[in-house]
Sequence to fold (494 residues):
Amino acid sequence: MTVVLVLVNVAADRFWFRLDFTADQRYTLSNATLNILESIDQPVTVSAYFSEDLPPHIADVRSDFMDLLTEYVKRSNNQIVYEFVNPNETEETEQQAQQQGIAPVMVNVRERDQVKQQRVYLGAVIQIGEGKDIIPFIQPGAAMEYALSSTIKKLSVTDKPKIGIVQGNGGPSLQAMQQVLALLSVLYDVVPVDISSGQPIPQHLKTIAIIAPKDTMGLQEYPLLENYMNNGGKVLIAMNRVEGDLSQGVGLPVSTGLESWLAKKGINVDDNFVVDANCGAVSVRRQQGMFTFNQQIQFPYFPLITNFSDHTITKGIESVMFPFASAISYDESDTNLRVTVLAATSKKSGKVNSYVRFDVSKQWTENDFPIANQAVAILAEGPTIGNGNSKLVIFGDGDFAVNGEGRAAQQIQPDNANLLVNAIDFLSDDTGLNELRTKGVTSRPIDPDLEDDTKTIIKYVNFLLPILLIVIYGLVRAQMRRRERLKWMEENYV
Fold:
């Protein structure tokens, strides 16, 4: 028996596997991670600074991270070495963690019906050769794999490829896109590009991004874009054909010349507002008697896009807010133009003229949303776009991934930034990290196209069905036990 157990353990160590039934496959390493681990050509040291005696829900993060590291070791042919350090053990270890850049976080711990705060450490330091980077806080779930894999990739790349973001056309500065820059900086050097200078666009730039231009682009700029694309360059355009001013309550068209350049390629970005029944909300100040309060009102001019194609760019993306967006159409008869619709409105959407005065108190009806699945993001390829390697990604909204300038900057939802960075990743890189970045499942909203009665039924079924199953199980078990008792009572004992 002992020999059998030993053989089973040896076999399990060499031929191991596990089944992953989670919706986001959080316990299965992605292809991007496997490629990164297979390409490691020098040792990687991971020093994990985790406190011990943690509350159960936080202790799970420590055990999950240890399991992840164990799998990384096996997949990298033991090129990864790791250790766990408890910073709370001594003052010296705590000082060591803080010197490495791992700061403590405060968590609530319940003891004997009392809640107290405890200083805990949940970070890691990754080192390859002389290069070192930190993960100051380990996120649970799929984000854990992305943080570790992207950090290893970042340290192993000696010469980062460059991404150009066009500046000087009235669009947002690089500082106005903080979340996007933070994600891009993992793999790329992001540099400003001024195409108004008349200088050719450097072909070493993996991708050129034109985001929310406001000023009219000069005629000399388009030949530069054409030359760049004809030599295999990739371009991303996130443009506004309309703009809404909520402070004035009006909407107006926007013209930069890009729309005319795209029209020559068979692609049209409408100068109308897209409205959608599935939408975000705006805060409206209300007064009732002596009291003033803010009320959230559904605002169809803020489409909440949840209709995505099955494409690398949109993989894992669940919902993106497109404020004041426009629909994109294209010439389907052009055999030299291949278009993939990346994102579209819901089945209940419509269009509103660009010259409009917003009425937040308007009662929207089904008649306001007669159009289904309007494209708001596309990928275009083919001879019409450039040579065989050229690609063009177009978004019908320029502001969805912009944080804003200075004090007006605000946090955008992660999928907004992820979608733009995924598109740049697809155009620029083939590591597949974009798939890993959006691997986690963050929400599972009810289909917005469902009728209200259907939603109500689904809600009550979800609430009542588990209770009903428990009651049925209890009744069945009680009946079975009753039959057993009757059977015992009917038996004749000699």
